[in-house]
Fold:
Amino acid sequence: MVKRMKIGIQGIKGSFHHIAAEHYFGKNIDLVECDTFGQMPNLLKEKKVDMLVMAIENSIAGAILPNYALIDACELNICGESYLPIRHNLMALKGQKIAEIREVHSHPMALLQCQKFLKTLPHIKIVEDIDTACVAKKIKEEKIKGVAAIASTLASKLYELEILASDIQTININATRFFILNTSLNYTPEQADKASVKFIANNEPGSLAEVLGILSRYDLNLSKIQSLPIINTPWKYAFFVDFSFNNPTNYKEAIEEIKEKGVRLKILGLYIKSKS
Structure:
């Protein structure tokens, strides 16, 4: 009998993290739910889960900066990635009409991604909550009238809510990137084709450009660069970079050359890039 993997997610069943976990691992998994991202690293450290699935950026709302800091501070390792199309729906108890809705509750990111639609409903109060699916579940369990959730189609099915408006995201091409996380490097450069690293450039003119030049010279394809302030060091930044590569030797030589320049560099993960 194949052991079912335990996967930690932010949110509950019906959340987009739930969908992303099944998209990456398949349905033969057990979910361990967290209210916040900050609760997730301890699940790995206490061996309560095998892996974590954590949202890192959205094509509309941008990067989730606290999660970069969390991955770094908690020594989490990126061992995979997954891109999930995000389709938002307005849902409420069966029989409710949009005209009867007084409030719309959802996760702040979901509300941000549906701003254009929500502006067409000026009579409705917008309320932030911890998770898209949690709102749907609460509406069902407490039989709350006059309140709608923004959540996934799966949430509407699990919690028996009626979809009042579908595909309400501002931009139809809306996707979220998720990192798959553990606490150890799973791949060698020979097995992987993508890397995520963090570095702090020297406090000298052109130091950032020099690092990026090394990546380019070794034919490493930069796909993401994100700066984050360094706590207690005003106006100094760490850079989180994703790049893909075809030649493991090029990868290793580029990393070595960057380190030789005195740049503080940390490998956050080696993994196989998503084909989504």
Q: What stands out?
A: The first strand starts at residue 5 and ends at 10. The two ends are 30 Å apart (CA to CA). The CA atoms of residues 79 and 186 lie 6 Å apart. The longest helix spans residues 248-260.
